[in-house]
């Protein structure tokens, strides 16, 4: 029983850390209506940026703050020089653009800073927290708390005047233009906010597994989170992250010993496939019905 509880708790915390990568995905879709397949590489670049600033002698706090500012600016530039050129194009072309950006960024980071994993010590400590017979990963606990705080901040943000404008842009670009909302500015802000969430994901996952190209593979569980929870739902990020994390921990925890390992990615793939087949708009996603 203690083993099962340990799998559930650590799986839930891991899922919350997945939510940090998924949050940027949802922020962009919720305001721009575009699936951003570059979010995994953006998380990787954010980790590299903070590691570089930290290695240059800045304190961790300043490195994170400056890294967030840099990634916000990178999001604005991405919208200005890439996404704005795609106005009026089919959505599939914009998706392919973000996929190309993912591939480009995945090569740029290791290409300039080296492929070897970079250590990013946050001072969390390696000793687990022990509650009864359950061992809780300290880094995952910190990451889970940060994820909950950022998801709560995102929920509050979309209740503000600016957040309402971003939601209006997602619903209808033309109507937003008609009432004086700067659609380009709104989309740029959403990309910038996704960059900030990528900093949190890159730093926390970088402290766990090191900063290298593998951070970009967080796109896979992040996609599972947003598909399960709902691609346009902030609440879905929270619940989807918990479910993906728990299922991806408990099932491999028992099944890996039988089949020899490697079932975590299979579980994640099945979550994506079954959700699309049974409830394609996710648990909390908005169901849009169009007459054709």
Task: Describe the model.
This protein has a single domain (2-278), classed as Orthogonal Bundle (ABC transporter involved in vitamin B12 uptake, BtuC), CATH 1.10.3470. Helices cover 72% and strands 2% of the residues. The chain contains eleven helices and two strands. It has helices spanning 2-32, 39-55, 60-81, 91-113, 138-157, 161-171, 173-178, 183-209, 219-229, 234-259, 264-278; strands spanning 129-131, 134-136. The protein has a two-stranded antiparallel ribbon. A hairpin with a 2-residue loop joins strand 1 and strand 2. It is globular. The protein starts with a helix and ends in a 14-residue tail after the last helix. The model has no long low-confidence stretch (mean pLDDT 89).
Task: Give the SSE map.
Blueprint: H1 2-32, H2 39-55, H3 60-81, H4 91-113, E1 129-131, E2 134-136, H5 138-157, H6 161-171, H7 173-178, H8 183-209, H9 219-229, H10 234-259, H11 264-278
| End-to-end C-alpha gap | 53 Å
According to CATH, what is the class? Mainly Alpha
What string gives the helices and strands in order? Answer: HHHHEEHHHHHHH
CATH domain topology: ABC transporter involved in vitamin B12 uptake, BtuC
Number of strands: 2
**Continuous helix count:** 11
Instruction: Order the strands across the largest sheet as they lie in space.
Output: 1-2
| Number of domain units | 1
CATH architecture: Orthogonal Bundle
Average residue pLDDT? 89
Keywords:
single chain; 292 residues; mainly alpha; 11 helices
């Amino acid at each position: 029983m203690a083993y099962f509880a340990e799998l559930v708790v650590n799986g839930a915390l891991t899922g919350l850390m997945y939510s940090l990568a998924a949050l940027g995905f949802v922020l962009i879709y919720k305001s721009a209506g575009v699936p951003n397949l570059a979010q995994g590489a953006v998380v990787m670049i954010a980790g590299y940026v903070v590691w570089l600033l930290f290695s240059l002698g800045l304190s961790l706090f300043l490195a994170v703050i400056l890294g967030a500012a840099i990634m916000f600016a990178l999001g604005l530039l991405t919208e200005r020089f890439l996404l704005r050129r795609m106005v009026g194009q089919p959505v599939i072309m914009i998706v392919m653009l973000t996929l190309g950006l993912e591939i480009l960024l995945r090569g740029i980071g290791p290409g300039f800073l080296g492929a070897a994993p970079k250590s990013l010590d946050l001072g969390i400590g390696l000793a687990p927290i022990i509650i009864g017979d359950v061992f809780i990963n300290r880094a995952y606990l910190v990451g889970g708390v940060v994820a909950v705080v950022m998801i709560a901040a995102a929920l509050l943000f979309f209740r503000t005047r600016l957040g309402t404008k971003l939601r209006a842009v997602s619903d209808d670009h033309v109507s937003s233009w008609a009432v004086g909302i700067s659609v380009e500015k709104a989309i740029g802000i959403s990309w910038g906010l996704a960059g900030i969430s990528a900093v949190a994901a890159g730093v926390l996952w970088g402290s766990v597994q090191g900063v290298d190209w593998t951070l970009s593979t967080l796109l896979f569980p992040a996609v599972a989170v947003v598909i399960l929870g709902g691609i346009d739902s902030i609440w879905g990020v929270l619940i989807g992250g918990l479910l993906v994390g728990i299922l991806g921990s408990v099932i491999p925890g028992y099944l890996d010993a039988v089949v020899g390992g490697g079932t975590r990615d299979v579980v994640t793939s099945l979550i994506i496939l079954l959700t699309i087949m049974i409830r394609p708009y996710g648990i909390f996603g908005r169901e849009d019905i169009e007459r054709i």
